[in-house]
Amino acid sequence: MFFPLSKIGWLLIQPIGLLGLLFAALLALSIRRSAWLIAWLAAAGLVLVLGTSQTNIGKLALQPLENLYERPAAMPLAGEVAGIIVLGGGFEGDVTRLRGGFELGESGDRFVEAVRLARLYPKVPVVVSGGEASLIGETEGDAAISKRFFDAFGVAADRLILEDRSMNTYQNAVYTKAVLPKDATGKWLLVTSAFHMPRSAAAFRKQGIDFIAWPVDYRTTGRERFEIGRDDAIQAFAEVSLAMREWVGLAVYAATGRIDGILRK
Length: 265
Description:
Distance between the termini: 29 Å
Radius of gyration: 20 Å
Oligomer: single chain
Number of strands: 5
Low-confidence stretches: none
Order of helices and strands: HHHHEHHEHEHEHEH
CATH superfamily of the largest domain: HUPs
CATH topology of the largest domain: Rossmann fold
Mean pLDDT: 88
Largest sheet: 5 strands, parallel
Number of helices: 10
CATH architecture of the largest domain: 3-Layer(aba) Sandwich
Shape: elongated
CATH class of the largest domain: Alpha Beta
């Protein structure tokens, strides 16, 4: 029940969803002729549109998430690495389901880095965590797609451990723990997008998995300051939406006991 509720709730509270709710409220109030409420809602809608599309507040909200964990400056020794865990979200599952192959999405850096690490540490297993997580329509999960992806880059199939049940970050951690080799020694390199790492790391820590955070797919410079004016308003919207999803996700996970606090290392 948590998965569909989280998906439906997110559709409503992301910036585009909020605009839809504002317009619906304006329509209802215009019928009732509540002029002062209409004016306030119209002003709120204008601030929301301009604030999200013409500033870098999305980047500013993503930046503390991305800065919480730094990738290690030096590569760990081979004997210190138990294996590599890469979290799903890097493929366009709906496209690959019909076209085959492996179409990388915005977070495709996760799998590019996983291949690089797999070649640097050729004797350790690679765990891919990600099932079919679409609420609407059909898709192909990242774990399934990854078999073709890693094979194309020379990573042997017998090194892969595919966790194909998870539909969110919490399940990534729970179901990954269940498939990890019991005799593994060392720490797991946890690969996911930098903005997603705080929630992922907290969920994996809650499950008692010993890992080294390995963030990739950065969306900010790490030194962002407030700016007005954007060339791509749609991208600015997307940044705000992404930041909102992560912050809301952290708050919900903390409130429901899935993680121990927000932005705790």
